[in-house]
């Protein structure tokens, strides 16, 4: 579903006001913005989310904050507001950090030296339920370290197809409709994939598939 057809509420968390000011100009210029919320501390956003019914569509999250780690803040945001998308936004391009963010529910990661068009593309893809990365992060993800390599579990053609659809953000009913399969069959494939990758949730499944260059 395209969320960018309607007005968006986006929160920016960064402890550098000049960064937020620059981001605001880009977002207002290129997206249908209803409101941009500005935070310098992670705790302030958590307090807001706990005391409002108003939805934040997407959070641009700096990984290095004075009061809380970006990974922990991502986890808390997703626990409180499961429908809010989170994009890591940082100078750091450490592969393990990116994977930790994905494991805690982030929709992707953008480095601060990315172009404005890259940023808007990543935001749009995240709002459509996709896992997304800026170009620099894509290159890092494509080069796993030796310690991260492991045997690829044998997958059927259908499992590979469903794995790709999961990474594209498709729901089980959407996959069932598109593939003309029963919902039970789709859920069975999902369970089999989780078992083969030893993944406890969808984020960890996608993380494992990315590491193995399967998506």
How would you sum up this structure, described in words?
The protein is of the alpha/beta class and 215 residues long. The chain folds into 2 domains: 3-141, Response regulator (Rossmann fold, 3-Layer(aba) Sandwich); 147-211, Arc Repressor Mutant, subunit A. The chain is 49% helix and 13% strand. It has helices spanning 17-30, 42-50, 70-80, 95-103, 116-127, 135-141, 157-167, 172-179, 183-196, 202-211, and strands at residues 8-13, 33-39, 58-61, 85-90, 108-111, 132-133. Strands 2-1-3-4-5-6 form a 6-stranded parallel beta sheet, sandwiched between helices. Helix 2 (42-50) packs parallel to helix 3, helix 7 packs across helix 9 (183-196) and helix 8 packs across helix 9. The longest helix is centred in the first third of the chain and has 14 residues, at 17-30. It is globular, with a radius of gyration of 18 Å.
Quick synopsis:
The chain is built from 10 helices and 6 strands.
How are helices and strands ordered from N to C? EHEHEHEHEHEHHHHH
Number of strand elements: 6
What is the residue-mean pLDDT, rounded to a whole number? 89
Distance between the termini: 21 Å
CATH architecture of the largest domain: 3-Layer(aba) Sandwich
Q: Taking Cα atoms only, what radius of gyration do you get, to the nearest Å?
A: 18 Å
Give the C-level CATH assignment of the largest domain.
Alpha Beta
> Tell me about the biggest sheet?
6 strands, parallel
* CATH topology annotation of the largest domain: Rossmann fold
Strand line-up in the sheet with most strands: 2-1-3-4-5-6
- Strand percentage lies at 5-15%
Class from helix and strand fractions: alpha/beta
Share of residues in helices: 40-55%
Query: Could you name the CATH homologous superfamily of the largest domain?
Result: Response regulator
The total domain count is 2
Stretches with pLDDT under 50, minimum 5 residues: none
Rough outline: globular
Number of helices: 10
């Amino acid at each position: 579903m395209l969320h960018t057809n309607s007005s968006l509420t986006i929160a920016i968390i960064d402890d550098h006001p000049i960064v937020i000011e620059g981001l605001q100009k880009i977002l207002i210029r290129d997206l249908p913005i209803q409101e941009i919320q500005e935070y310098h501390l992670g705790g302030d956003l958590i307090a807001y989310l706990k005391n409002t019914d108003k939805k934040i569509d997407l959070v641009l999250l700096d990984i290095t904050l004075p009061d809380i780690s970006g990974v922990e803040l991502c986890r808390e945001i997703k626990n409180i507001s499961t429908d809010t998308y989170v994009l890591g936004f940082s100078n750091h391009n450490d592969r393990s950090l990116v994977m930790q963010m994905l494991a805690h529910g982030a929709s992707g990661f953008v480095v601060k030296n990315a172009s404005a068009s890259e940023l808007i593309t990543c935001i749009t893809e995240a709002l459509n339920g996709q896992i997304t990365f800026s170009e620099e992060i894509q290159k890092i993800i494509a080069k796993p370290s030796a310690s991260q390599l492991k045997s690829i579990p044998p997958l059927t053609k259908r499992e590979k197809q469903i794995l790709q659809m999961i990474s594209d953000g498709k729901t089980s009913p959407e996959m069932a409709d598109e593939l003309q399969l029963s919902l039970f069959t789709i859920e069975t494939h999902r369970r089999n994939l989780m078992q083969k990758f030893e993944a406890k949730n969808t984020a960890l499944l996608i993380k494992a598939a990315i590491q193995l260059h399967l998506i």
